[in-house]
Protein 1
Amino acid sequence: MNQAESLFAQSRYEEAVKLFQKVLTLDPKVYQAAFSVAIALSRKAIGTAPKNGISGPSRSIRIAKLLTAILQRL
């Protein structure tokens, strides 16, 4: 978790998300990891240009759905 938080602090969101997801695989009740995934994906979406015609708001909706799915598993 510490390494994921460090990567997050460095704006290395893709790498941080992978580690946060690994934490969730080991213990799905680490709620901070679930929220950190959502925040990292949101920041990544805001900071990048649209790909394949998917705008920032559309990505935000996808991120919200992902967070909902994660929380439903808990």
Protein 2
Amino acid sequence: MFYAIEDRIRGLPATQRAAVRQSDTRRLIEDFKPWLEARLLEVSKKFGLGKAIRYTLNHWDGLTRFIDDGRIRSSAASSR
């Protein structure tokens, strides 16, 4: 779903990308974080899925910064 939104706004000016992300992507992200937190309680933190979820939650601010700044590409690389 996130990538479908990004495909739709690719090539638009940064201000328009930010506006679409704020209206469309933000609600998905807001639902995704509690879902991840709930899954983390269900899986072992020692295995790959648990590690991936923990990594995502530990880097949440960087991973979601693209929502408010249309200049940022929506990729995990931009959070590092």
Protein 3
Amino acid sequence: MGDSRERVYGFDVQFILEGENLPLEEIKKTVQAAGQYPLVVGDETLLRVHVHTLDPDAIVSYGRSRGKLSDLVIEDLDLQAEQKKNRGAGK
């Protein structure tokens, strides 16, 4: 994502994946391997995917290779932690 800061928490990635005959077990294994707090819920036509990862582009590209993505959210968890720390320090 073009950021030179050292990553500790990475990115929270969430999306809905639509398709036909989605390979559930393959998708679950891929999401689990992509990072922490993986979650894949749904069926062979509609899935909700969530993972914390250091490489959001990889999991988004994988999702696009499997079907249609919607409701894509990518949040910078390191930035959120920094902002929270700064608010707590009164900055």
Protein 4
Amino acid sequence: MSNMITNGSKDPDSLLPTEGWDGKQALADPRGIPEVEAAIVDVRPLIAGSGSPIETEPTGG
């Protein structure tokens, strides 16, 4: 996994924290770990309603 700060391609003034994964399995592997599940519950309200995927351009990380 890598973390990146990206700009939204439609709004160059936006900054979007982004996670990059090596594949679907790498994203799925941590599921089931109690601490990971608790973190998902905590952040779910923050990402609810975010809509469809956003195209980004990596700018650093």
